[in-house]
Design goal:
The structure holds 2 protein chains of 2 kinds. By secondary structure, chain A is α+β, with helices and mostly antiparallel strands. Chain A has helices at 9-15, 40-49, 83-87; strands at residues 20-21, 30-36, 56-61, 66-70, 77-81, 89-93. Chain A has one domain (16-93): Ferrous iron transport protein A (FeoA) (SH3 type barrels). Mean pLDDT of chain A is 80; it is low at 1-13. Chain B is α/β, with parallel strands linked by helices. Chain B has a domain at 29-232: P-loop containing nucleotide triphosphate hydrolases (Rossmann fold, 3-Layer(aba) Sandwich). Helices cover 56% and strands 8% of the residues of chain B. Chain B is built from 28 helices and 10 strands. In chain B, β5 (128-134), α4 (138-149) and β6 (155-160) form a beta-alpha-beta unit. Classes of the chains: A alpha+beta, B alpha/beta. Chains A and B meet through α2, β3, β4 and β5 of A and α4, α8, α9, α14 and β10 of B.
Chain lengths: 94, 649
């Protein structure tokens, strides 16, 4: 669980691999959430559930549904996303 | 790993500030006398379990206008008298476009027109708020906590799931947490009862904390609070949960597991509920006999025996199925399985404009539409929820079974196999019509993009039968209340229409009584309306009577044809099958029987269902639309079937 402030997009882009769609990750891969192509309501809802920009996540299951563990380790929460929704989210693989 | 400090000791002084937060405000004497308390938190944090542990059985429900959400209320003993405790719906944030968020914000912040105010909250806002925080997911929970604290109400934080957090290597330092939040912190588990006794005393010390400076500051504030008080020193993956999720959401394994679980659930409902159902039926039959033999013959005895007891008893007989259904669903929900199942079924229902959440309500509709419609509350999107409610009454409920039995026997008296095939066809026709209705509704009056599905998957855990029983009994009580009011009124009106005016003295033939009653006269008058579906005067009376409750059809037909409502009797069945119209031709020709079967599969004919639809969908326009649509579809389909079968001969 991270306690540090979110990284800025500039820093992340400079140091991390290029962003990919969440659906491109395989089971067990970890990543940080980048911006998605979501409507404001959906983005706000996901952020309130814990999927906010720069959060760390681990893919527990790829496909439909895509299950991610937010914050990636002992704490956090487990969120299932429909394939379409997962496909509209971009992540920075770690 | 245990917390570094004893969690539930009161803080000795006002907490120091955190990050950019302003100084906290010390409790005043006025704040110390807590009278009304709101319990708020994310979903699945153990909030309702904590509420149940605090409130025991003394609970009632508050509904909010225009929503399907409800809050549970209870009077709870506090250090200085009683406090009214309200368990608000779980939400992820106060400013989201969801009914849960609007309710929590309305109750906590006070809304201008007062529609979200809870009766008993004299000032329109609670005197204090208890924010429930899941110890295994503190960062996410703190965001809602920050929004609530920013409202400026006296606040405490109750941390739950401590045991699960310790197993995962998460440590929360209670004193540092209190200092960082600026309000009292209590560690409590509603499940084990540990620490629950400290919650109400802590509320007497609730303080108005500073919290984040503004909406844009919440993330930084939450991160700062977390960094000061919490550590997670073990990084482990929950491999068991990963494997279970893979199996339960697998395209093949997941569907197979779902089919097996649902088969078990409905087998339990239909087999185990039979015993209490028979007992209820027997009890009301006995009570009717006692009334008939005790009271002198006349209108009062008839009203009690044929109106009140027959009507209410005929509805309450479904109570065991309803209670068992909600008990088993609550158990499944507690295990964490239902959230996974919603995704398995989502891909099957999505083409019909329905979400995965709709499956359990649709399946429950095969027992009784009333609890099924009530369980549609779990569908978050309004359009999808109403589409589900419009589709549910097409599912073949238990009350249709006696009608199916009669008509399939009439159609295939010599072939049990064909009877079974026709019976199955009725179920398929109903389910197909329900899904078609959902598609039509979602492409017309409920048009709109379906929200993408995102669900938090709760951790797997053993279910708590006591909490599940509490949920089931609450639902059962709501159903009894309805049977005692709306259904009772309907039963009395129907009895009066069918019993009056009474035939002349000495004319003891019940068939004549049925003919001269108001219902009989109405049947005469409206028979031309039902002629296109093959109904004569007697069938029209049967159809009209069954608009209150469809199971009345068989008994009404038996009274008109055989002079008794005992349709179980083999002789009466025989006479029903051979019944003649006024012109001497058979009542149940093949064309009429097929048309009636289709009509009863598709028509709504259940006034209590319409009452529940009006309440759950948010207005009588939906109930009227449901009635008009189902009756129209049933009428047209039955007329087509009557014409086609009649032409084939």
């Amino acid at each position: 669980m991270t306690a540090t402030a979110p990284q800025t997009t500039t820093q992340t882009t400079a140091q991390a691999p290029a962003r990919v769609r969440l659906t491109q990750l395989t089971r067990g891969q970890t990543a940080r959430l980048d911006q998605g192509q979501l409507e404001a309501d959906s983005a706000a809802h996901l952020a309130a559930m814990g999927l906010r920009p720069s959060c760390q996540l681990r893919v527990c299951k790829a496909g439909q549904p895509c299950i991610v563990h937010v914050d990636g380790h002992a704490g956090g929460c487990r969120i299932a996303l429909s394939y379409d929704l997962a496909d509209s989210l971009y992540v920075l693989p770690q | 790993m245990p917390p570094a400090t004893h969690p539930n000791e009161p803080a000795s002084a006002a907490a120091p500030e955190v990050g950019a937060a302003a100084p906290t405000v010390a409790p005043t004497d006025a704040q110390a006398v807590v009278q009304t308390v709101a319990l708020v938190g994310n979903p699945n944090v153990g909030k309702s379990t904590l509420f149940n542990a605090l409130a025991g059985r003394r609970q009632k429900t508050a509904n909010f206008p225009g929503t399907t959400q409800e809050a549970h209320l209870a009077s709870v003993r506090a250090p200085r008298g009683q406090a009214l405790l309200a368990d608000l719906p779980g939400c992820y944030g106060l400013h989201l476009d969801t009914s849960e968020s609007r309710i929590c914000k309305g109750v906590l912040a006070g809304d201008p027109d007062g529609t979200m105010a809870i009766r008993g909250f004299a000032t329109g806002r609670p005197d204090a708020v208890a924010i429930v925080v899941d110890a295994t997911n503190v960062p996410r929970n703190l965001r809602l906590a920050g929004e609530v604290i920013a409202l400026g109400l006296p606040t405490i934080v109750v941390v739950t799931m401590i045991d699960a957090a310790e197993r995962r290597g998460i440590t929360i330092d209670a004193r540092k947490f209190e200092a960082a939040l600026g309000c009292p912190v209590v560690f409590a588990s509603g499940k084990t009862g540990k620490g629950v006794q400290d919650v109400m005393p802590a509320l007497a010390r609730a303080t108005v904390a500073a919290g984040p400076l503004g909406p844009g500051d919440i993330d930084a504030w939450a991160d700062a609070v977390y960094a000061k008080a919490c550590t997670a020193d073990v990084r482990t993956h929950d491999a068991v949960t990963d494997r279970l999720d893979l199996a339960f959401t697998h395209p093949v394994l997941g569907v197979a597991a779902f089919a097996a679980i649902m088969t078990g659930l409905f087998w339990a409902i239909f087999s185990l509920a039979t015993i209490p159902m028979d007992a209820i039926e027997g009890f009301f039959g006995w009570l009717g006999g006692v009334v008939g033999s005790t009271l002198p013959e006349g209108a009062v005895a008839d009203l009690l025996a044929d109106g009140v007891l027959a009507g209410v008893g005929g509805t309450l007989v479904f109570l065991p199925q309803i209670v068992l259904l909600f008990f088993l669903i609550a158990l499944l929900e507690q295990t964490g399985y239902l959230a996974r199942a919603a995704f398995v079924i989502d891909r099957l229902l999505r083409p019909f404009g329905l979400p995965g959440h709709a499956f359990v309500p649709l399946l429950s509709g095969h027992a009784c539409a009333i609890p099924a419609i009530m369980s549609a509350r779990a569908i978050p999107d309004f359009r999808q929820r109403v589409a589900t409610i419009l589709a549910i009454p097409f599912m073949s409920c238990s009350a249709r079974i006696p009608v199916y039995v009669l008509l399939t026997q009439v159609l295939f008296p010599a072939s049990t196999a064909r009877q079974a095939l026709a019976f199955t066809g009725c179920y398929a026709l109903g389910a197909g019509a329900g899904l078609l209705t959902a598609v039509v509704a979602r492409r017309t009056i409920l048009r709109g993009k379906s929200p993408p599905m995102a669900l938090e998957l709760p951790r797997y855990q053993w279910p708590g039968p006591i909490d599940a029983a509490r949920v089931a009994l609450h639902r059962g009580w709501l159903f009894i209340r309805k049977a005692g009011t709306v259904i009772l009124a309907i039963s009395i009106v129907l009895w009066w229409l069918s019993a009056y005016p009474q035939p002349p003295e000495g004319a003891g033939d019940p068939r004549e009584a049925a003919r001269v009653s108001f219902l009989g006269r109405i049947g005469d008058a409206v028979q031309p309306v039902f002629a296109p579906i093959g109904a004569d005067r007697q069938l029209t009376i049967g159809i009209l009577a069954s608009f209150a409750a469809r199971e009345v059809f068989v008994g009404t037909m038996a009274v008109q044809v055989a002079g008794t409502d005992d349709a179980e009797d083999a002789g009466v069945r025989e006479r029903l099958m051979e019944a003649a119209r006024d012109d001497g031709t058979r009542v149940f020709t093949p064309a009429t029987s097929w048309a009636m079967l289709v009509f009863f599969v598709l028509a709504i004919q259940c006034l209590p269902t319409l009452v529940v639809t009006a309440r759950e969908a948010g207005g009588w326009k939906w109930a009227l639309l449901q009635f008009a649509w189902m009756t129209g579809v049933a009428y047209v389909a039955a007329a087509v079937v009557y014409g086609v079968v009649g032409a084939i001969g």
